[in-house]
Amino acid sequence: MARSNRPVNPAAENALDRMKFEIASELGIAETVRQNGWATMTSADCGRVGGQMVRRMIEQYESSISNNQQ
The pTM is what? Predict the structure, then answer.
């Protein structure tokens, strides 16, 4: 199966972009992203942003399933 950069749910694309930029702000790299774009960022910085996004999505999912069980 070919890999794709498109989200499974296209309606979630804007939310994912907002989350990515919010995390970049928390990591202190948002200004560089604003000025130069994501293409100029180091792979380490992009990895940090991606890792934080995954952590946050897992936390949100765990929270939602725990709320559904109550």
Answer: 0.80
